[in-house]
């Protein structure tokens, strides 16, 4: 049986919660380099690896997506009228200026930028429909 590394960290404690969740779902897990990283934890090249059997990887990906350890697959925007994937975001000059100053603000204060593109308009290159997502 071959094992696949699904997550790695310099500290074993970062992986314990995920390992516990996977084991509660009946998935066998193991740590690789566990002892080496405990003894030589000051050397940044040593990583603890959380490994699972290769046949359990699809189920593990689903669990990791649920727990937030793995980002969901990229979702493509589709035009609601024609079904085309040629949907682009329409960005006005005002939005570009807001983006520029928001980046400066984030670099200075670590303020969130999540509301910058809220209520943005998207348009379809094929049929010309403009939609707010």
Task: Summarize the helices and strands and which ones pair or pack.
Layout: E1 3-9, H1 13-24, E2 30-32, H2 34-39, E3 48-53, H3 57-67, E4 87-90, H4 93-109, E5 121-124, E6 130-132
* Amount of helix: 25-40%
Secondary-structure class? alpha+beta
Number of separate structural domains: 2
Q: Enter the CATH topology name of the largest domain.
A: Alpha-Beta Plaits
**Chain-averaged pLDDT:** 78
**Beta-strand proportion:** 15-25%
CATH architecture of the largest domain: 2-Layer Sandwich
Q: What is the straight-line distance between the termini?
A: 46 Å
> How many helices?
4
* Low-confidence residue ranges: none
Query: What's the CATH C level of the largest domain?
Result: Alpha Beta
**Global geometry:** elongated
Main β-sheet, spatial strand arrangement: 1-3-2
Question: How many strands, which pairing sense, and closed or not: the largest β-sheet?
Answer: 3 strands, antiparallel
Total number of beta strands: 6
Helix and strand string, N-terminal first?
EHEHEHEHEE
Cα-based radius of gyration, to the nearest Å = 22 Å
């Amino acid at each position: 049986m071959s094992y696949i590394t699904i997550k790695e960290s310099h500290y074993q404690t970062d992986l314990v919660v995920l390992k516990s969740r996977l084991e509660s779902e009946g998935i066998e897990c193991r740590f690789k380099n566990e002892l080496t990283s405990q003894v030589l934890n000051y050397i940044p090249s040593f990583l603890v690896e959380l490994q699972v059997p290769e046949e359990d990887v699809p189920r593990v990906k689903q669990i990791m997506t649920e727990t937030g350890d793995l980002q969901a697959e990229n979702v493509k925007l589709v035009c609601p009228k024609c079904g085309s994937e040629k949907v682009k975001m329409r960005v006005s000059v005002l939005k570009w200026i807001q983006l520029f100053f928001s980046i400066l603000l984030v670099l200075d204060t670590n303020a969130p930028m999540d509301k910058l593109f809220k209520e943005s308009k998207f348009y379809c290159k094929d049929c010309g429909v403009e939609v707010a997502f």
